[in-house]
Amino acid sequence: PISDFVTEDVNCPVCKGDVSDEVKGLMCDTCQTWFHGSCLLISDEEYDDLSSSENSWICMGCTAENSNQLKWGALKGEKAIQQVVKATYMEMTKWKKNLFTLPRGKAGIHFINEVAR
């Protein structure tokens, strides 16, 4: 995420100044927004570490947004959770129909004898 990849006019959301090849800039891998390293208050050493790293860099805005999302196990976001809960509920309502039905015939007699013990 280094400024060498800036191909168009982009502005840092912190200072509103241009992020160009001449300045040290970082791009958020989530929102694709460019920031000046100086606006992020990172040292030259931190910038060099980030710019040479294979790891992604995520800005504070995206980090905060992601941390506020509802999570449930591996599911992330309210919509994903609602879909799974609805599908599970629909499946369980099918079970209810069979759950309270007593077996009939020979199987029913054995079942009632077991319950009546």
Please give a structural write-up.
Helices cover 44% and strands 9% of the residues. By secondary structure, it is mainly α. It has a two-stranded antiparallel sheet with strand order 1-2. A hairpin with a 6-residue loop joins strand 1 and strand 2 (34-36). The longest helix is centred in the C-terminal third of the chain and has 22 residues, at 78-99. It is rod-shaped, with a radius of gyration of 29 Å. The N and C termini lie far apart (72 Å).
Low-pLDDT residue intervals, each spanning 5 or more residues: none
Number of β-strand runs: 4
Describe the main β-sheet briefly.
2 strands, antiparallel
**Order of secondary-structure elements:** EEHHEEHH
Round the Cα radius of gyration to an integer and report it.
29 Å
Fraction of residues in β-strands: 5-15%
Going by helix content, strand content and strand pairing, the class is mainly alpha
Query: What proportion of the residues is helical, as a percent range?
Result: 40-55%
Helix count, DSSP H or I runs of 4 or more residues: 4
Which geometry do the CA atoms define? rod-shaped
Distance, first to last CA: 72 Å
Key terms:
two-stranded antiparallel sheet, 9% strand, mainly alpha
Summarize the structure.
The protein has 117 residues and is mainly alpha-helical. Helices cover 44% and strands 9% of the residues. The strands form 2 sheets. A two-stranded antiparallel sheet has the order 1-2. The chain has a two-stranded antiparallel sheet with strand order 3-4.
